[in-house]
Structures are given as C-alpha cells and as structure tokens.
Write a structure and sequence with these properties.
With 527 residues, this protein is an alpha/beta fold. It has helices at residues 2-18, 32-47, 81-86, 92-97, 108-119, 122-127, 146-152, 166-169, 194-227, 234-239, 250-253, 278-285, 308-318, 349-353, 367-376, 389-398, 412-424, 426-440, 446-459, 475-478, 481-526, and strands at residues 22-26, 51-56, 67-71, 134-137, 156-160, 243-246, 262-264, 292-296, 324-328, 341-344, 358-363, 380-382, 402-404. It has 21 helices and 13 strands. α13 (308-318) links the parallel β8 (292-296) and β9 (324-328).
C-alpha cells in the first residue's frame, strides 16, 4: 500500500514537471513596492509547477518552492541607486523640501551603470545558456533588460505595476487620446476643459519626444555594449511582446481604450486581512472605541530620514489624539514618543487596513497603498512626494476618498484639520466603501486572471493572435494622416477645378452679355 502511494505521488510530480514551463522574471532595478505587486502572480505560477528564475535587487522575505532568485545590486531603486555610485543614499524628504524633483531622465548615467553591472554578473551571463519558455518584465525604467530578452528569443509578457500609461500601451499598437486620458505626471481627470486638454496634449508629445530622442537611444546603446550591436531598439523589441498585464482597474484609474493584448488585473496583490502579530493586536485593542491611525510613507522611503522639524510636527499632532497611531519608522526609536504612538520598522499593511478599528491611513499615496486602502475601504490622508503619487492623490481627491496635504507647506493645524475632517465627515468612509464594493465586483479573481493569461501565452507559443496590426503602423499610418491628406488634396483639387470651370463659364457669360449689349446699341443707332 505504501509503495503504491509513493508510486502515485511520483507519477503526479513527474506529470507536473512534464507540463511545467521555465519562466524568467527580469527586474534589473526595482522598488520593494513594485515587487510586492507582482510576486503573488509569480508565486501562484510557481505553485502550479512552473520553474521561476527572478533577477531582482530585492530579496524576498522567505524562500518559495520552484523560485530561484538572482540578486543584482542591493535595493537598486531610484531612491537608493546613488548609494551604489558613491555610498550616499538620497533623502527624498530633503529633496522635496528643497524643491528638487526625482527626474529619471536626469539619472541616465546611474541607470547605465546599474545596467552594465547587472549584465556583468556571472549568474546573469549564465542565463544566456539556458532556454526559457517565457520572459516576464516590469519595463518601466527597466528597458535595459530588453537586450537579454532579445537574445533569449522567448515570448515576452510585460507587467505595469500601475495602471498602464500611454508610453507603454503605445508600444503595443494601442493609443490613449489626450482628450480624455490624463498624462501620468499631470493628474487630470478624464473630464478636462480646453486648457487642460491643451496642456495634456503638450505633455504627451513632450514625454514621447524625450523617450524617443533621448532616453531610449541611450538605454539601447548601453545594452548593445553587452549584448551586441545587432540587438534592435527598445520600441522594436517591445512591439513583439505577447501580452501586457496592467495593475489597474477602471473603477480607480478611469476607463481607457485597451486592445485584447492589454489585460487589467488590478487587485492582484490585495487580499483579506490576516490575523495581526501579538504585539500589534494588543496595541490595536488598547485603542478600544476610538480606533487607530496607520501612518506609512511606503517601502521605498525611510521614515527616519525626515527632518526633526517634520517629525515633531507629526508627534505634536499625534499626542493630542484620542486614537492610537501605528507609525512605520525604521529605527523603532524616537525621543519624546507619546504613549499612544507605536513605531515599527515593518508592518503587515493589509492586516492593519483590514482591521475593523482602523480610522485613517496617512500615506504618500503610492499606487499600491492607494489600491489596498480602497480594497479594504479605508479613507486616507495623502501627502504625495514624487512620481505618480500626486496623480494618485488628485484622483482620490476627485473621488472623495481622501484629504490631500502638501508636504512642504503642511502645518500642525493642517494635519489636525485633515484628521478631524476624516473622522467627523462620514462622506469619506462612505465614498471609499462604495468604491471598494465596485472595485471588488469583478467577474473573476485578478490573480487567477493574470495566471490564466500568462499560461494562455505559454499554451499558444506567444499567442500572436492577440497582436493588433496597429503595431506595424507608424504614426502617420495609424492616424490615417496620409489618407486624410490625400482626401484633402482630392477635395481641394475638385473645388479648384469647379472654381476654374465656374470662372470660365462666368467669363463666357459676361462676354456674351457684352456682345449682346453692343449689338443692341448698334441696332438702336440704325433705327
């Protein structure tokens, strides 16, 4: 009996391996928050028997069966990449207060150095000797990995950690009209007035121009150094992608025109709350009827790097509250800490957001944090710093689910007013509860949907049937500008010819009338 069970188990494992595929996940540069969004998808694929290799700068908290990780640079994010160059980590709070921007276009040399260093790793070079059935890439500022993608000649699946921007969907033949899809850096709603449409169109053109003539040529030159001069440019490689998975949902980021090769899987990493660790559970229960407030500026920004002035601002306000406050603070040490404030360097964010006693989530308004708050129906106070956070905050403000503050101008009175407004005005909780209900009302589970589409690409060897012919058209052909110009030419020519004919007929009539008048005058004289 025991031998029969062992034989059945062996056959099951053998069949599972026989139908498993080798998947490579490439992310030369990444933030922890970006990895958090797609890891449930990767882990689910691994649990289904697929063999996963991940190239990443972020170490997972624990090992997972069928997943092997190759580490690039330690925590290579835009916030910390300077540390790899000269040992000094960027202080995003100081940058914000100094009026500086975290412009990735101004950090190309650092991007290039990280890219070259990653390609020089023996483990990465070894990937060229392996055969993969599919490559999964988060391409935003990771385009340097596309050189390796091209050499591997495997179907490519792209993943956007935020609702897919136009700069990505354009590469696959899609198009987001500037008339109702706001640029990711502007934060406009889909209902724009003329001036907003004018600015939005200009920003779209400017961004496309910077990518096409500045950013992409440089990144292409870097991966060609390592992979060979015959490797195509970024747009050509991405044009051959099989699928684009977007961590967005129309209820949050508004509807967009998407082709079948772009699939929304928003809610992918959001899940029901799990039981809290003992220390957190005890602290939360101590708040009794008043509830608690969660304060976190995300995984990429270290709270303990903020200035003493700003830290004291928060402390002074928190000390006056009847609610308890759980604050993500990496050192877990702070002078003059009020009794109602708990510091933790790591927090089970969804466990806290899903707790019945939570009242407010104070956040930088990253896409992942905003989505999780909506999923769990928690109103927010947004204090955006950089990137898409301002856009996220603006959208949340328009939806009536958050109160927005400016980091640089915020005072104690402003923060206290925001907290009291959220606590006393039920519209915020009602609005986010309504949005949460809509967001969760999906025909299937976003995680299962993402897995199904990846395996669809595997089953159909790249699924070329998903690709629109628009991928092969240039700007003029896509918008039928050549046809429009030709029709305009034809119409102009027809009108011109009609004008010529009319003028000639007119002249002829005039000449006849003139001749008739002359004959009439002659006849009168003869009489």
């Amino acid at each position: 009996m025991k031998s029969s069970c062992s034989l059945i188990l062996l056959l099951t494992v053998s069949l599972k391996l026989a139908y498993s595929d080798k998947i490579l996940v490439l992310s030369f540069m990444s933030s922890k928050s970006h990895k958090i969004t797609y890891m449930p998808l990767i882990q689910e694929l691994a649990s289904r028997g697929h063999q996963i290799t991940i190239v990443t700068p972020i170490k997972s908290e624990k090992d997972f069966p069928n997943i092997k990780e190759i580490f690039t640079l330690e925590n290579a994010t835009p916030c910390t990449m300077k540390q790899h160059m000269d040992g000094n980590s960027l202080n995003v709070f100081e940058m914000k207060e100094a009026g500086q921007t975290m412009n990735p276009f101004m950090m190309l040399e650092q991007f290039g150095d990280i890219c070259r260093s990653t390609y020089d790793l023996p483990q990465v070079k070894g990937l060229l000797k392996e055969k993969f059935d599919l490559v999964f890439v988060q391409p935003i500022f990771n385009e340097c990995a596309l050189g390796l993608v091209y050499r591997l000649q495997a179907p490519l699946v792209l993943f956007s950690p935020v609702s897919v921007p136009s700069i990505l969907v354009n590469k696959l033949g899609g198009y987001f009209p500037s008339s109702f899809v706001g640029n990711v850096f502007l934060g406009y709603s889909d209902d724009m007035n003329f001036l907003e449409r004018l600015v939005n169109f200009g920003m779209d053109v400017l961004l496309e121009g910077m990518l096409k003539f500045y950013y992409e040529p440089y990144i292409t030159s870097v991966y060609r150094e390592k992979m060979g001069e015959d490797v195509p440019s970024i747009p050509i490689i991405m044009r051959n992608a099989s699928l684009l998975l977007s961590n967005g949902h129309f209820s949050i980021s508004r509807p967009k025109p998407l082709l079948p090769d772009v699939v929304e899987i928003g809610g992918l990493h959001s899940s029901p709350a799990q039981a809290l660790p003992k220390d957190l559970a005890e602290f939360v229960s101590s708040s009794q009827q008043e509830g608690f407030i969660l304060f976190s500026m995300g995984s990429a920004y270290k709270g303990d790097m903020m200035s003493d002035k700003k830290r004291n601002l928060f402390l002074n306000v928190f000390s006056k509250l009847r609610q308890t406050v759980i604050w993500k603070w990496e050192s877990e040490k702070m002078e003059n800490l009020p009794k109602n404030v708990l510091l933790k360097k790591w927090l089970p964010q969804q466990g806290l957001l899903g707790h019945e006693s939570i009242k407010i989530f104070i956040t930088h308004c990253g896409a992942g944090s905003l989505e999780e708050a909506i999923y769990h129906g928690v109103p927010l106070i947004a204090i955006p710093l950089f990137g898409d956070q301002g856009t996220n905050a603006k959208q949340g403000e328009d939806q009536g689910i958050l109160y927005r503050l400016d980091w640089n101008t915020m005072t104690e009175e402003d923060l206290m007013r925001a907290i009291q407004q959220i606590l006393s005005n039920s519209k915020y909780r009602e609005n986010v509860a309504k949005l949460s209900k809509i967001f969760k009302d999906q025909p299937d589970d976003p995680l299962k949907r993402g897995v199904w589409w990846i395996e669809y690409v595997l089953r159909h060897k790249g699924a070329p049937q998903l690709r629109s012919a628009s991928r092969n058209l240039n700007f003029i052909q896509y918008h039928s500008l050549d046809a429009i110009f030709l029709y305009c030419g034809i119409i102009f020519t027809v009108f011109y010819l009609l004008l010529v004919v009319v003028r000639k007929l007119g002249r002829k009539c005039v000449r006849r009338n003139t001749a008739g008048k002359k004959d009439f005058e002659k006849s009168k004289k003869n009489l």
